[in-house]
Amino acid sequence: MNRLAFLALAAAGVLWGLGFPLGKLVLQETDAAQMVLLRFAVAACVSLPFVLRKESLALFRSPVLLGGGVLYGVAFLVQFEGLAHVSVTLAALLVGAMPALIAISARLLGEPVGRASWIGVAAATLGAALIAGKPDGAGSPLGVGLSLLALLLFLSWIILMRRAPKAADPMAVPAVTVIVAAFAILPIVLVRYGAPRLDLSPGAWAAIVAQGGLSTLFATAAWQYGLARVGSASAGVFINIEPMMGAVLGVMLFGDHLTAALVVGGLLILAGSFVVVLGEKSDAQPPPV
Questions:
Q1: Helical spans, DSSP H, in the chain
Q2: Contact call for residues 242 and 16 (beta carbons, < 8 A)
Q3: What mean pLDDT is predicted for residues 137-149?
Q4: Which pLDDT value is given to residue 92?
Q5: Contact yes or no for 262/251 (Cβ under 8 A)
Q6: Are 29 and 200 in contact (CB under 8 A)?
Q7: pLDDT of res. 244
Q8: Is 52 helix (H, G, I), strand (E, B) or coil?
Q9: For residues 281 and 274, what is the distance between their CA atoms, to the nearest angstrom?
Q10: What is the pTM of this model?
Q11: What value does the mean pLDDT take over residues 129-146?
């Protein structure tokens, strides 16, 4: 069992989850698309030291990384555009479906999916649904369509990144990914929304820097490290740590109510993650002779 891989996947979920409260602070001063651009611009700047070697620069010629970077950046833009037309509750519920989509796609692509992974997927998906609550009347058809499109783009990115080239520096591949993503979304945001505001408060800039460094570059690096070492279905379970973190931080920092559904949902997500880890450990043991 690759314990470090599962720790990296859990860290990715936590770091992505931090993006929710950090984004809430930034959105008080600018709109979502420009926040995404600033977030990726910071991530790209932080990534530069990891791509200065000749071997790392060669990764920019990889069709997989070029396509993956474009998918990653555009997926974030579509997701936040969808959030403008749906409630956070409905968006969280849709994100909660990702582990199931990943497991199904992995099975269709011929990747073995063990029983423990299916159990973990079911528990994590149910937990995310409980955290999200009832999305009745919580969004327009356009918002739902954009949110579903974002999920498909993220799913395509996950599948594509399974084929990412190996690199001597483990940070090189995620660094190239976020740099390509930043350049991919730059013209889209400039044409559709104009240049982003730069006269933001120190608090907003601190949140953007944290988003770029922690919730983008290092979250991406942790996810790609784990994904390369465990099955897609097993990795997908840890995505639901993201909405769980958003809900928990909402209670701790923004005065949201702690409900029984949040507690039970969070426990189900954690239980699903443990089932996957323990199942992987069991599968890794040699059969008795």
A1: 3-26, 32-47, 54-57, 63-83, 88-95, 98-108, 115-132, 141-161, 172-193, 202-210, 219-227, 232-236, 241-254, 260-284
A2: yes
A3: 72
A4: 62
A5: yes
A6: yes
A7: 73
A8: coil
A9: 11
A10: 0.80
A11: 66
What is the DSSP code string of 146-169? HHHHHHHHHHHHHHHHTTPPP-SS
- So where are the chain's domains? 3-282
Is residue 252 over pLDDT 50?
A: yes
- The amino acid at residue 175 is A
The larger pLDDT score, comparing residue 104 to residue 219, is at: 219
Tell me the residue type at 27.
Answer: L
Side chain identity, residue 133 = G
With b for 16 or more beta-carbon neighbours within 10 A and e for fewer, the 51-60 pattern comes to beeeebeebe
- The token duo for 78 is 């579509």
Between 101 and 50, where is the model more confident? 50
Fill in the amino acid letter for 269.
Answer: I
The torsion angle over the Cα atoms of residues 104, 109, 110 and 112, rounded to 10 degrees, is -40
Contact present, 167 and 56 (Cβ < 8 Å): yes
Structure tokens at 182: 């930043």
CB 171 within 8 A of CB 50: yes
Q: Which residue has the tokens 């013209």?
A: 187
Please give the structure tokens belonging to residue 132: 């999200």
> pLDDT, tens digit, for every residue of 108-117?
777 777 777 7
- Write the DSSP symbol of residue 286: P
Report d(CA 79, CA 214) in Å as an integer. 19
Residue 214 DSSP label: I
Instruction: Kindly state the tokens that stand for 233.
Output: 């279905």
One-letter amino acid at 69 equals G
Give mean pLDDT, residues 266-282: 69
